[in-house]
Amino acid sequence: MPSPSNDDWSTRHSVRATARRTAALVNALTAEPEPDPAAIAVLLLDHGESGPLELTADDVAGMRAAALRLREVFAAGHVDEAAGALNRLLREGTGPLRLSSHNGASPWHPHLDSDDEAPWGEWFLASSCMALTVLLWEGQRPPGGLCSSPSCGDVFLTVGSGPERRYCSRRCATRERVAAHRRAKAGAGSRTPSSRLRENAAAPTP
């Protein structure tokens, strides 16, 4: 198979593409204690990684540990807090900046992991930190957030302009609006006729 063009590679591995991969992996890796390696491999392929991929349970465990740390960045409510979380991860979990072409298989690009053969968990943490750092730098705001739906809690990205997001998807936002409407309707309907009569009787006469 011919190697992909530089333009194609750069599109699949752009900052935003990498950040989208980060959010998808954080959600998949933290949804359960022992994620399925095959499912994580499919997710990596869907987000531009070259195959075939054969992940072990240990590989995925390392990636899950990184995902739990990355959630701290998404949970930050203010840009200063997000920057602090990223600085901790950059200091504790990544190496010095280096350039790699993967022995000519890709255009030269920056890495923060220690080696091209670094463990999956190290690679995931380092590449995610780089992408989220650039998003924070460009937007001067947290690069993502946590869904406000009590039944969800997935992470999401905050890219582009527009109002502040509270939910990871339109689906979650709609579900919470419907639930709030039902609660309000149920509260209004809980007033019985007798309670309304008592309220009327207690009301002062003009």
From TrEMBL:
Region (Disordered): 181-206
Coiled coil: none
Gene3D superfamilies to which the protein is assigned, alphabetical: Jann2411-like domain
Any Pfam family matching the protein: zf-CGNR
Residue ranges occupied by any Zinc finger CGNR domain in the UniProt entry: 146-183
Source organism, top-level taxon: Bacteria
Record-linked PANTHER family: BLL6575 PROTEIN
The name this protein goes by in its record: Zinc finger CGNR domain-containing protein
Native source species: Streptomyces antioxidans
